[in-house]
Automatic annotation (TrEMBL):
InterPro entries membership: 6-PGluconate_DH-like_C_sf, NAD(P)-bd_dom_sf, UDP-Glc/GDP-Man, UDP-Glc/GDP-Man_DH_C, UDP-Glc/GDP-Man_DH_C_sf, UDP-Glc/GDP-Man_DH_dimer, UDP-Glc/GDP-Man_DH_N, UDPglc_DH_bac
EC number(s) from the headed UniProt entry: 1.1.1.22
Binding site for substrate: F152, L153, R154, E155, K207, F252, L253, H254, A255, G256, G260, K323
Family statement: Belongs to the UDP-glucose/GDP-mannose dehydrogenase family.
Sequence ranges assigned to domain UDP-glucose/GDP-mannose dehydrogenase C-terminal in this UniProt record: 316-417
Binding residue positions for NAD(+): D30, R35, T86, T121, E155, K266, R330
UniProt protein name: UDP-glucose 6-dehydrogenase
Pfam family for this entry, one: UDPG_MGDP_dh_N
A single BP term in Gene Ontology: polysaccharide biosynthetic process
Active site: C263
Pathway assigned in UniProt: Nucleotide-sugar biosynthesis; UDP-alpha-D-glucuronate biosynthesis; UDP-alpha-D-glucuronate from UDP-alpha-D-glucose: step 1/1
This protein's encoding gene: rkpK
Organism: Nitrospira lenta
Reaction(s) catalysed (UniProt annotation): UDP-alpha-D-glucose + 2 NAD(+) + H2O = UDP-alpha-D-glucuronate + 2 NADH + 3 H(+)
């Protein structure tokens, strides 16, 4: 089978490279000529474990190609995935102008039956809108089907998530389209991956429902963390105790500085906006977003309190991306937190294994450091902002030599208090009691 993927952003490129790995011929199209030129040489414009190797393999084996030409993308492909951006507009609703533009391009150039699939998260009703746009711009009536096949991959483990998904959701408007899509995902049959086949709007909603629910879980445990701190309970153990109930599940119950990334904040806003549009305010989605923003600010208050004020203090920050194994800074808690710390007069020294370039542009005034121990220079506190593996085994004796105060602000709860306090550090974490240093 020959397919094409329009849009070589995160979702598009992972989709293209993974289908090529499944043995399908894939043409990836993007109208950014520079990006396509680089991709043709195997240069991937973002950080994601394993993607560069997969792209190189696809190119070498002749199943993966790149183009700026929409005709090439439409011509041979039976299935066309649309994976272009749907950025939020000022009212929180998703901007569909790129999706519609692609729809017009497909309509003008199609010469035979196509299955046109939305892969990015798109608001309920986008499939219908796309159908109208394509019908309107066709030069002569040619049959096509619309499918919603939302992507659930996580940054940092995108390839694994694509190759071994928990489920594949297919919202199709005909049996023929559903059969073609199932055929495309045939390699997953071996893994007995469940397929959920629905109509188009239901599949579109499954994506929002899933992301909003995960975001609610995080905001729930973050509120729980604040209450735990006040009553002297330990949120880690509360999560464990709750999560063992199969109806709840232990995942996404890790308290921290709040969620970030390109999906949760945007999808919550879009869901709230959809609710408003249909006359039903989606209260829980709105609350999860509000709690999340306040969680960023609560971290500032926590740091301020632990340091006895922020003016004149130096803080070392480890990790800036919204989560480990990505250079993505979109909606990262570090953005709000670091800016607030500096606004209140703190000096911030920071290091991230892969997002330094981007972060330095986004957080003016931050002192960029070259490596982990560099941030600790004269620091009054060391903040773990993102739980990269390399920050999980810090050499506390080495840190002691350069820090002014022995204070670890463990915003991701990665450390066991006994270990930290045993090295003479005060251990402040999220939703767990603060522990004072133990005498040597
Ligand atoms: C998410 C969804 O998981 C994925 O299915 C969807 O396709 C896109 O959005 P992603 O944004 O890559 O994926 O990251 P994810 O691993 O879900 O983490 C999101 C944020 O929540 C991160 O900032 C992370 O640090 C935070 N998080 C996650 C917590 O604070 N606590 C948790 O227990 C889990």
């Amino acid at each position: 089978m020959h397919i094409s993927v329009i849009g070589t952003g995160y979702v598009g490129l992972v989709t293209g490279a993974c289908f090529a790995e499944f043995g399908v011929n894939v043409t990836c199209m993007d109208n950014d000529a520079r990006r396509v030129e680089k991709l043709e040489k195997g240069e991937v414009p973002f950080f994601e474990p394993g993607i560069t190797e997969l792209v190189a393999k696809g190119i070498k084996e002749g199943r993966l190609s790149f183009t700026t030409d929409v005709v090439k993308a439409v011509d041979k492909a039976l299935v066309i995935f649309i994976a272009v951006g749907t950025p939020p507009k000022s009212d929180g609703s998703a901007d569909l102008s790129f999706v519609e533009e692609v729809g017009r391009g497909i309509a003008t150039h199609m010469t035979g039956y196509k299955v046109i699939v939305t892969k990015s998260t798109v608001p309920v009703g986008t499939g219908e809108r796309l159908r109208e746009v394509i019908r309107k711009h066709q030069t002569k009536p040619i049959n096509f089907d619309i499918v919603s096949n939302p992507e659930f991959l996580r940054e940092g483990s995108a390839i694994e998530d694509f190759m071994r998904p928990n489920r594949v959701v297919l919202g199709a408007d005909s049996d023929q389209a559903a059969a073609i899509m199932k055929d495309l995902y045939r390699p997953l049959y071996l893994l007995e991956t469940p397929f959920v086949v629905t109509d188009v709007p239901t599949a579109e909603m499954i994506k929002y429902a899933s992301n909003a629910f995960l975001a609610v879980k995080i905001s729930f445990i973050n509120e729980m963390a604040t209450v735990c701190e006040r009553v002297g309970a330990d949120v880690q153990l509360v999560s464990k105790g709750m999560g063992l109930d199969h109806r709840i599940g232990g995942k996404f119950l890790h308290a921290g500085p709040g969620f970030g990334g390109s999906c949760f904040p945007k999808d919550l806003a879009a869901l709230v906006q959809t609710g408003e549009r249909v006359g039903y305010p989606f209260q829980i989605a709105g609350a999860a977003a509000k709690v999340n923003y306040e969680q960023h600010l609560r971290m500032v208050a926590k740091i301020r309190e632990a340091c006895g004020g922020l003016a004149g203090k130096t803080l070392g920050v480890l990790g800036l991306s919204f989560k480990p194994n990505t250079n993505d800074m979109r909606e990262a808690p570090s953005l709000t937190i670091l800016k607030e710390l500096m606004k209140e007069g703190a000096t911030v020294r920071a290091y991230d294994p892969v997002s330094m370039e981007e972060a330095t542009k986004l957080i003016p005034g931050m002192i960029p450091c070259k490596e982990t121990y560099d941030v600790a220079e004269n620091a009054d506190g060391l903040i773990i902002m993102t739980e990269w593996n390399q920050f999980r085994n810090l050499d506390f004796e080495r840190l002691k030599q350069s820090m002014r105060q022995r204070l670890l602000l463990d915003l991701r709860n990665v450390y066991d208090s006994d270990r930290v306090t045993g090295h003479g550090f005060r251990h402040v974490s999220v939703g767990r009691p603060t522990r004072e240093p133990r005498p040597a």
